[in-house]
């Protein structure tokens, strides 16, 4: 009976050693998977930081475009105002020129 019990114990021991080897292999695989997850999380964080930086840069560009649009609008208003002023000045010059011509003709008529 002792021989059967030693065989059973030996078989049991071999099964337990095999199970331990399998568990050890699984633990190694799990540790490698966890390292992969940590690496992926770091990559995701880096990508999120890059996206945040690009988003910030985009907002800066949008703000600059808005400021430039406002400046262009102001310049367009200034151009229109200047154009109106030039038109009025041109009309006054034309009127002064016409008045001078009228006076010249009047003086010439007196001289003649």
Order of helices and strands: H
Distance between the termini: 162 Å
| Unreliable stretches | none
**Can you count the beta strands?**
0
Helical stretch count? 1
Strand share of the residues? under 5%
Largest sheet: none
From the helix content, strand content and strand pairing, which structural class follows?
mainly alpha
Mean pLDDT reading: 92
Integer-rounded radius of gyration: 48 Å
Shape: rod-shaped
Helix content: over 70%
Describe the structure using short key phrases.
112 residues; mainly alpha; 1 helix
Write up what this structure looks like:
This protein is an all-alpha fold. Helix content is 98%, strand content 0%. The longest helix is centred in the middle third of the chain and has 110 residues. The radius of gyration is 48 Å and the shape is rod-shaped.
Précis, in short:
The chain is mostly helical and 112 residues long. It is built from one helix and no strands.
């Amino acid at each position: 009976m002792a021989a059967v019990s030693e065989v059973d114990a030996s078989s049991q021991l071999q099964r337990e050693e095999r199970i331990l080897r399998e568990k050890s292999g699984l633990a190694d695989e799990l540790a490698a998977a966890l390292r992969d997850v940590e690496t992926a999380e770091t990559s995701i964080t880096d990508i999120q930081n890059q996206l945040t930086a690009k988003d910030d840069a985009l907002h800066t560009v949008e703000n600059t475009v808005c400021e430039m649009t406002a400046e262009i609008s102001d310049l367009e208003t200034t151009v229109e105002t200047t154009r109106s002023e030039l038109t009025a000045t041109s009309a006054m010059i034309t009127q002064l020129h016409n008045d001078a011509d009228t006076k010249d003709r009047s003086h010439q008529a007196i001289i003649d």
